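During the reporting period the student researcher (J.K.) took over the structure-prediction task from the postdoctoral fellow and processed the backlog of single-chain submissions. One of the processed entries is reproduced below for the supervisory committee.
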Amino acid sequence: MPSHHDSIWVILAGGRATRMGGHDKGLVKLNGQPLIDYVYDNLNNQNASIAVNANRNKDFYATYGTVFSDVIEGFPGPLGGIHAAMKNLPNDWLGFVPCDCPNLPIDLVEKMEAAITPETEILVAHDGDHVQPVVTMMHRGIFDRLDAFLNAGERKIVLLYDRCNTQYVHFDGQESAFVNLNSPEELEKFGQLS
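J.K. obtained the following structure tokens:
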């Protein structure tokens, strides 16, 4: 069911992936499929509109949706992709997920969007034990604060949350849904590295 909010979900694939030996993480294969396939299929099955933040292999990523690169130089991390999304996409609400989370909750979009209130600026997933800071939805109204935050050299996403009206959306009992695969070792443990 399409949501009543003007939202788009952005797969963050713009990082340097230093722990993955510098390989473009979204393209690293798990059981013969690029990691981004799992994330895309999951969001697509939830009827999400999808875009991709990528700083390389943009032609490849364009097959998944609108692609845009960081605006701020020097790989500023997930916030760089979030910032670029707000500059490039017109939607009021932007959801974000990392490209290396192959097992996201199947009710992620519905549950996050259902938690939006008129006061909400940021929603963040919580697995019952830990905050999942990069699985988030943000209202574009925070853009000026985000821009100032990044231009001041700040990079820690949780510090931004402290400066906004942030609420947590609980996915208790779904800890494994937020497994993210940062290294070849984690990939091998999770599945078959090909």
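The committee noted the following: The chain has a mean pLDDT of 87.
J.K. will present the remaining backlog at the next meeting.
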